[in-house]
Amino acid sequence: MWSLLDRGAGRASGLAFYVAVLLLLMLMVIGALDVVMTQVLHRAIPGAVELSEAALAVLTFLGLAQVQRQRGHITIDLFTQRLSAVWSRRLLIVSSVIELAFMAAMAAAAWALAVRSLRLKETAIGYLSFPLYPGKILVFLGIVLATVELGRQTVSLLAGRDAVEGKETV
Question: Which residues lie closer than 8 Å to 156 by C-beta, 6 or more apart?
Answer without folding.
Answer: 162, 163, 166
